[in-house]
Specification:
This protein is α/β, with parallel strands linked by helices. Helix content is about 20%, strand content about 30%. The protein has a 6-stranded mixed beta sheet with strand order 3-4-2-1-13-14, with no helix packed on it. A 6-stranded mixed beta sheet has the order 5-6-7-8-10-9. The protein starts with a strand and ends with a strand.
Amino acid sequence: MAFTFIQITDHHLVESEDILLRGYNPAYALRRVLRHIAEHEQFDFLVSTGDLVDNADSYRTFCRLLQLQPAAAAPGPALVTTEGLNACPLYFLPGNHDDREQFYSHLFSNVTAPGTLMHVVFQHKDVQFLCLDWGPSGRAIAHPELIEFLETSLRDGQPTVIFTHHHLVPTNDPFMDSFLPTPDEARRFWQIIEQHQQHILGIFSGHAHVTYETTCAGVPVQGLRSTSYQFATINNELVCLLQSPHYRVVTIDQGTITSRIVEVDL
């Protein structure tokens, strides 16, 4: 049975909706994106692939903005009622800016002793969604538990979508690509993906603040522009870009995955 979900990523909210981050208002931009989704899209759920906030003191602002009803357990769904969305299911991944203790305590009501990393799976219709946590560092680290979780989850051959905060393929930006896994870690990860490529529908990530679509190990790999500021390396200097945010609309129908990008004017 066909269904649709929407990916958003890298919101970088700060302590107040009025505070600017590098000259940009991330709360205003996120509201604009959510309003556009509410007015234009039909979908089953939202997923945010991390960096919900820019620092650990900002989760209250994040929860107030979304009028969040916490989920029982990770990764959700929590329910959000804001900007025209009404009890909309939203799944969360932590990014490198997300303090794990604050992330769990604000978004999930029944997590009493969360681990450092969040490797979890959820089901929607006949597809499993794997949420991989490459850790709180800017660089993606393939901890042993990530590899074990990935191998175990793919073993039964169920149609699978993989969510990850960290990007896993080069973006051709030297700053962002310094955060890729080491060659040995990347090789091990992609070997597993290639072994199971026939039932992996796609890999979706954030972190790089840039939208791209490519194929690696026979699997579609897609990144997404932040709802917050964008950036690039120009003349060896990291520069913030005031580009319009994106969200990605993904449809799965009888084992086939398609997606489209929507740009939101601010």
